[in-house]
């Protein structure tokens, strides 16, 4: 049973499925340069159910302080999720750099020449 759980985790949490989520974030991101570290927040904030609910109600003028005021549970668990998704985010970034989905210039990630097709599972894509 332990092997089944371990293997099912890798089936649903792999770079091939989650890289389009990361690329979609940078396609829609209109922020500052030196945005590389933001990539480590994308998966921990967008994959959990409470994260999806909170992200659905924020806009471009929302701040992290406002996000923290509205949902302490999400912020409280964020540190453990950052640790959990760090390696997966590294693999997604490496996969997207290898396939020219994203381009790294210093500490800035920008959308590259090739853009992956949208994920079939629309519940995990960022719009």
Question: Could you describe the 3D structure shown?
Answer:
This protein is mainly alpha-helical. It has one domain (2-111). The protein contains 6 helices and 2 strands; from the N terminus they run ααααααββ. Helix 2 crosses helix 6 and helix 3 (39-46) crosses helix 6. The protein is globular, with a radius of gyration of 15 Å. The mean pLDDT is 78.
Radius of gyration: 15 Å
Strand content: 5-15%
Helix content: 55-70%
Helix tally equals: 6
Distance between the termini: 36 Å
- Count of individual domains: 1
- Helix vs. strand class: mainly alpha
Main traits of this protein?
single chain; 127 residues; two-stranded antiparallel ribbon
Give a brief outline of the structure.
With 127 residues, the protein is mostly helical. The protein has helices at 2-12, 15-28, 39-46, 49-55, 64-70, 72-98; strands spanning 102-105, 108-111. It has one domain.
Describe the protein's topology.
Layout: H1 2-12, H2 15-28, H3 39-46, H4 49-55, H5 64-70, H6 72-98, E1 102-105, E2 108-111
Antiparallel strand pairs: 1-2
